[in-house]
Amino acid sequence: MSIDHLNKQNYKEGFITDTDSVSLPPGLNESIISQLSKIKNEPQWLKDFRLKSFNYWKEMAEPNWSELDYKQPDYQALSYYSAPKKLNKDEIPQEIFDTFEKLGVPLHERDALLGIEKDTKIIPTVAVDAVFDSVSVATTFKAELEKHGIIFCSISEAVQDYPELVKKYLGSVVPPKDNYFACLNSAVFTDGTFCYIPKGVRCPMELNTYFRINARNTGQFERTLIIADEDSYVSYLEGCTAPAYDENTLHAAVVELVTLDNAEIKYSTVQNWYPGDENGVGGVYNFVTKRAMCKGKNSKVSWTQVETGSAVTWKYPSCILKGDGSVGEFFSVAVTKGKQQADTGTKMIHLGKNTKSTIISKGISFGDSTNTYRGMVKVNPGAHNARNYTKCDSLMLQDSRALTIPYVTCQNDSAILEHEASAGKISEEQMYYLQSRGLSEDDALNCVVNGFCKDVFQKLPLEFAAEANSLLGVTLEGAVG
Amino acid sequence: MLKLIDFEIKNVLENINLTFEEGKTYVIMGSNGVGKSTLLHGIMGRPDLEIGGSIEYNGSEINDLTTDERAKLGIFVGFQSPTSIPGLSNFQFIKQSKKLKAVDIKSSLDKFKELSVSLGLPTDWDKRNLNTDASGGEKKKNELIQMLMLNTKFAMLDEPDSGLDVDGIKSLITQLNNWKNNNNTLVVVTHYEKLIQGLNPDSVVLLKKDNVTVGDKSLADKIFSSGFEDV
């Protein structure tokens, strides 16, 4: 197989939707931010939050400690708001609707049903919030969820309808000053998902947000905030794609999760942003800050991610294990090919007593790409009996690069931390064995890689597992040189 | 029918001329390191082997076919030391190799379980990871199951007896003899007398670096009594 075939990107989501939209002119200054706040009809406290963040941001410098090599975005050349012109508040323009249909995202509540009939009631399985460029265009099953007291809506709506909740928690897990991109996000965030699960409620369906970037030269700055009150549970899935543009698109999101006593949030992401072409032209810059505050006793947050897209990925979904007995988990499969670069991993910060964290990271790299795992396990002096298990494995083909950079700090004698790592090439022997049973080269590679990723795939919710599996298959097509 | 014509594998074998006919059983013997395993893998098309001469299968030359293409023609090799594939279960592997349709899965699984039990394998063998949680003998039994479940027409087994316990050997002989018919070919590399007796081969091939001696079962007896050099 030729090298060309190997690195050819077959990104079927690369189409562009032709739709009327309202946009702010490019540029970033107090005036733009004020306009943005006005368009969204925001209360004063939020406008102040934004302007304060912008002032911090002006004093900060873009970080340069990573292994990543990318062209710095020109922040003044981006437009910070672009939304489809809606005919009226409740009507989605047909072309937007069609876009999501094409991507396989069910916006009709009827379509989201998988038809399990119990008595006369059909139990739905997936509620969807669809975000197109800077706005949420549809959220399904809101009424159904409201019956349980669950709030699942766009963050813009939450600001209007549940301001006290938003005000209480926004910025509590990722403060604006946290890092350069979180700060920028705090100034210009547009939309994202807000979710609140009340005490004792187990959310009856998977909640799903699907992000679609469409307009050129815009930045995408979502903000997601999920709060699980005492004894509650929710499983949340996030999917994303973007058209195939020659310019780089910046995606700087912030996700904050809060779990109170005995609550649990499962957060899964299948990321398939446009990765750029085989020469590294175009592609999304995916610079994301995701963090969970396991505030309550025995609370738990699991991050599961399958990253196959974006030109440059920079993200460390993390857990602050504050509550005694709290648990943090991070399961990741990151694939890079062509000229993609990924610097991703997690931070598990053990503060409370008897806290536990598990990290399983699988990196697969081929072509000329670079795949870095960067993880931190920090055990503070008060974190008695902390436990961590970390396993990072790298699989490489051709001349790709894989790096593993663990940071381990332990300030408590009773902690037990385990770290295992492996790095290797896809074995010729395994490939030959599989092929001797009639599997083609592609199928054999799929088998080996799937087996390699198995422990992570098993953590994904069923619907996502199937999608992740097929995405991996598409990503690996023609990968064997 | 598989023919090797002036067959050579660089740095291993040369001047090998052999014909394997349908409906027959062949035993390949030779001293350690002479190239018996390599011969089998040369026929299977292992990419690192440099081949000269010609391999003809059912009248057509297959030198340019890839390993999986040869497998699809019904050529099978049972490895001497099967490799392990983490995360892939034994039955899943069969499913993939056969590209089973949903309707056929149950009957296939039943057959798989039947075979594994008759070979003395545990009842959850279908769920165990391919060759990862398996002893040497268990791996060999797995090779046999795969041979029997795929559409094998030309089976080459590399020391299928090594590691098998006494019951395993008995089952191996029974299963292989049951499998034999007028249209398929069985080629076994072995040093083990009992297996040769049990399989009752039509031909015994003594492989040397640059030639072959072909005889009937009495050739095997000669080798066992006098060693390789005197033959």
Name a few traits of the molecule.
heterodimer, A: about 475 residues, alpha/beta, twelve-stranded mixed β-sheet, ten-stranded mixed β-sheet, 12 helices, 26 strands, about 25% helix, B: about 230 residues, Rossmann fold, six-stranded mixed β-sheet, four-stranded antiparallel β-sheet, 10 strands
Summarize the structure.
The complex is a heterodimer of chains A (481) and B (231). In chain A, strands 7, 8, 10, 11, 13, 14, 16, 18, 19, 21, 23 and 25 form a twelve-stranded mixed β-sheet that branches. In chain A, strands 6-5-9-12-15-17-20-22-24-26 form a ten-stranded mixed β-sheet, covered by helices on one side.
Can you offer a commentary on this structure?
The complex is a heterodimer of chains A (481) and B (231). Chain A is α/β, with parallel strands linked by helices and 481 residues long. Chain A has one domain (3-476). Chain A contains twelve helices and 26 strands. In chain A, the strands form four sheets. In chain A, strands 7, 8, 10, 11, 13, 14, 16, 18, 19, 21, 23 and 25 form a twelve-stranded mixed beta sheet that branches. Chain A is globular, with a radius of gyration of 22 Å. With 231 residues, chain B is an alpha/beta fold. Chain B has one domain (2-226): P-loop containing nucleotide triphosphate hydrolases (Rossmann fold, 3-Layer(aba) Sandwich), CATH 3.40.50.300. Helices cover 37% and strands 24% of the residues of chain B. Chain B has eight helices and ten strands. In chain B, the strands form two sheets. A six-stranded mixed beta sheet of chain B has the order 6-7-8-3-9-10, sandwiched between helices. A four-stranded antiparallel beta sheet of chain B has the order 2-1-4-5, with helices on one face. In chain B, helix 4 (102-118) crosses helix 5 (136-149). Classes of the chains: A alpha/beta (481), B alpha/beta (231). The interface between A and B is medium-sized, with 24 and 24 residues.
